[in-house]
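Class prep. Write one:
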Amino acid sequence: MKAINLTPRFWVAASLVIFTLVVGLIGPFVVGTDPDAVIGGLYDKPAGGLPMLLGTDNEGQSVMANLVYGTRTSLLVGLVAGLIASVIGLVLGLVAGYQGGWLDDVISGLTNVALAIPSIVLVILLGIALNDRSSLALAFIIGITSWPWMARAVRAQSTSIRSREHIDVARLSGASWFSILSRDVLPYLLSYVVMAFVLQVSGAILAEAALSLLGLGPSGTTSLGVMLYWALAWGSIRTGAWWAFLPPTVMLTLIAFSLLLLQSSLDEVFNPRLRRGKLAKRKTKGGQSLPAPASSQVPTPIGAAGIVESPVPASTGGTR
């Protein structure tokens, strides 16, 4: 089995993703302060000690504690919503692309209708309709409105795979459609599914932040978007309290950037054409000549008896 060549970009992206996970999962235990505990006054400046390292917010609560707990909430919403959207898009795309016929028409029509409606509008309307907006409820809303583009892409790839020879062999052997989808079609789509899941997580985290900025964030808990909402509502920018809005902004940017960088690096890992293209560019920059394409190399003609024949010059004609 050929080893996967992981690029430096992948390791940078993976390091950033691991850092954000550590902040969200281990950070609350390291800080050791309840995010709802009042430890100071309105927008106290950063001081010594881990809880006061980033000062206090509009309610006198630790910005550091809210940052680590908010990162955990945002990551939770992103992972759950990304998983829901990926599962729905994958299942619908596989079934539509493989089965075809009227089922494909129905699923494709539903997907087109869902794509025509801006998902942010649906998320806002559903968020307003909820009485208790918990983190999981918001994740569910974001997930069920983010699947259409993935379903369309999976459907297109499944349609091209179903006409391959190994699929015909599986049908003739009596395998069920579920077995064919899980064993013969899905493995060809795993690389795309992984990259699409990363994009779904990133989009869900940003969608939760957008909802929170509109006042529709999760209730009873804190998130990066909720921190930004209260920082803007209490005029932290106007008063110069940068520690109230800058840390959640930087963390949101870091999460989105690391996930997008991870998706791009995974594309290089899974796509051999991109790897060959980058290798060719490096050789060109290093002053090395690239090998001639296969089409420009004229093969030596071989006779019917297997004897190598010398090519006939263009100026002479063949024997009559």
